[in-house]
TrEMBL record:
InterPro entries linked: ARM-like, ARM-type_fold, TPR_IPO7/11-like
SUPFAM superfamilies: ARM repeat
Pfam families hit by this protein: TPR_IPO11 (PF25758)
Protein's name according to its UniProt entry: Importin-7/11-like TPR repeats domain-containing protein
Species annotation: Ladona fulva (Scarce chaser dragonfly)
Domain Importin-7/11-like TPR repeats: 3-152
Highest classification ranks of the organism: Eukaryota, Metazoa, Ecdysozoa, Arthropoda, Hexapoda
Length: 155
């Protein structure tokens, strides 16, 4: 089976079944993965741009939360600005806890801001396609999806 057929079937199932994934970490990971596909230049991916935009926006709806100041933040980010993982105020840490924290420190779900990565990928895709083809691609997106996506990124 040619690669394009496999990608076609994979994306069809992925976009159709992503709503079934309820765990936030997995939804964000799927959103990151879909975002990464935008810069492949694949015709199959571009044909599903509207669906990808919708699913990543839905993942953003799930993971973006307002902090006490009203700023919109990725709720799954655990690293502070220095890149270190904050330890809770607990007197003892087991080896297992320490291993989990070290692993989380390298996990893209906890170290990559979905909104920023999505914006970066859309910008890179726009540069790859050129303004005319990019604008044509945006015309394939329904108004509701476009409005939702614009709450998070610049299109």
């Amino acid at each position: 089976m040619p690669q394009e057929q496999v990608l076609d079937k994979l994306l069809n199932v992925w976009l159709d079944k992503m709503d079934v994934v309820t765990q936030l970490e997995r939804r964000k990971l799927l959103g990151l993965a879909l975002s990464s596909l935008l810069t492949t230049g694949s015709r199959i991916v571009l044909e599903r741009f509207c669906g990808i935009l919708l699913k990543v926006t839905e993942a953003l709806n799930d993971v973006i939360k307002a902090d006490e100041t009203g700023a919109q933040l990725d709720s799954l980010m655990i690293a502070d600005s220095s890149g270190s993982i904050p330890f809770e105020e607990v007197e003892q840490h087991t080896e297992h806890d320490l291993r989990r924290k070290r692993l989380a420190a390298t996990d893209p779900v906890h170290t990559v801001v979905l909104r920023d990565y999505f914006q970066q990928q859309v910008f890179e895709m726009k540069n790859q396609l050129g303004s005319v083809q990019y604008e044509d691609l945006l015309q394939t997106v329904d108004c509701e999806t476009m409005d939702q996506a614009k709450e998070y990124i610049v299109l």
